[in-house]
Amino acid sequence: MITYKVKYKKYIVNLYVPEQKSGRVVLLLPGLPMSTNINNILKPFLDAGAVVFYPYLSGSYDSGGSFSATQSVHDVVALYPLTQMTEVTELYFGKKIALGTAKETILVGMSYGAAIALLGHKNLYQKIILLSPALLFNPTDIGGEAGKSFHEQMKSLLHLLKNAHPFTYRIGFSQSLKRFLLGKSNFAQRSSVMDSLNKIKCPSLVVHGEGDTSVPVELTCSLEQEVMNANISWHYINSSHSTSSYDNESLVLIQKFVEG
């Protein structure tokens, strides 16, 4: 693997290039806050010969604009042309990086990024993977103690982001992110999530850890019971929330889906 940093329009993007390219390209959407410990989850994609783009979403770190859930959803479409480029330029030294022609483009979202992937894919991608997905945010939709606990975690996350401003996320005075994470915006409701899941037209994989204490696994289980879409494969694994806790069996599952 070779790692680069590239600039595309207003976005700063980390680029990971495998030793042998297969024509597959992955757009890997980060969680919230963005994780720097992704070596484990990169492995199945790189082993499948996929080039991986890992972007800083709008308003985060060096990427331009402001950060909100609505803007993050727009980013999924805005970043798609990057995945189709046959050559990019390394940011610091201007080196040209040959990527080849994209034969298959895969959208992957982790945690918060899974919700953004689901809401923003617009059927542009040939495959979708949702890892440790946070898809429902309204505590009433989740139900019981799991919903209450998750709601409290989202309030703590908002407090963290507010204190981090403007060093990591430029959330300004926008209420968009707050409304989304607390389950009050229209597209954070169960009806919107169900509609989005049922409209997926490409092969899709959902992976959730049974030991996830950040996003309750009940959230995904309840959706699986109601979604009627044969394109989606649901898997529950022995892990916590972080993709760094995914064991080798889980990574092989992901790689086989990518190569299938």
Give the structural class. alpha/beta
Runs with pLDDT <50, length 5+? none
The count of strands amounts to 10
- List the secondary-structure elements in sequence, H or E: EEEHEHHEEEHEHHHHEHEH
Report the major sheet.
8 strands, mixed
Helical proportion, percent range: 25-40%
Strand content: 15-25%
**Radius of gyration computed on alpha carbons:** 17 Å
Characterize the overall form. globular
How large is the count of helical segments? 10
Strand order of the largest sheet: 1-2-4-3-7-8-9-10
Q: Mean pLDDT across all residues, rounded?
A: 94
N→C terminal distance: 22 Å
Concise summary:
It is built from ten helices and ten strands. The protein has 260 residues and is an alpha/beta fold. The longest helix has 21 residues, at 144-164.
Protein described:
36% of the residues lie in helices and 21% in strands. It is an alpha/beta fold. Strand 1 (2-8) and strand 2 form a beta hairpin. It is globular, with a radius of gyration of 17 Å. The two termini are 22 Å apart. The mean pLDDT is 94.
Write the layout of secondary structure elements.
Elements: E1 2-8, E2 11-17, E3 24-29, H1 39-47, E4 51-55, H2 69-78, H3 80-83, E5 87-89, E6 96-98, E7 104-110, H4 112-120, E8 127-131, H5 139-142, H6 144-164, H7 176-181, H8 190-198, E9 204-209, H9 217-226, E10 232-237, H10 248-259
Parallel strand pairs: 3-4, 3-7, 7-8, 8-9, 9-10
Antiparallel strand pairs: 1-2, 2-4, 5-6
